[in-house]
Amino acid sequence: MELLDLYLALFVAFFKIGLFGFGGGYAMLPLIQHEIVDTHQWMSVSDFTDIVAISQTTPGPIAFNSATYIGYSAVTEMGFASGYGVIGSAICTFAVSLPSLILMTLVTAFFFRLKNNPWMQSALSILKPAIIGLIASAALILITPYNFIDYKSWIIFGAVLVASIKKVDPILLFFLSGVIGLIFY
User: Quick count: other Cβ atoms within 10 Å of Cβ 51?
Assistant: First the structure.
């Protein structure tokens, strides 16, 4: 495969993943696996599983992290130099984020034109409770016996909840939660 053909194939694959990957990074993983492992066979299932594990341990969204690594790995595994792999990483990362960039640019343009429209105001007033419900649903899913191990976890959770309601800086809460966790455990 020619290098430019590989770059184009990587771009198209990750553009599709970004376009159809609703629900966040974890929801994109089956799409990524289908494109990378099943369709193009740029890596094995075992290699893909390793990439997912590495992507979870590095800062940033899992879809972007895996796109970056897969872009590099696919190019270098095809026998091209590591410098070309860096370009492959950039292409995959750009391609997976491009659909969101286009969509948000369009939404923002229409939102600023229509933000004072009574229909838009009604739609937003309906969406606010729905969004709060979705966030609450995600929180309830995370509150399981497996995630909250004992009463100490509930104490940390309650303290952070109260502090966040009182508008304490989230970064400070993050670090204080870690310190309290170290003390408790």
Answer: 23
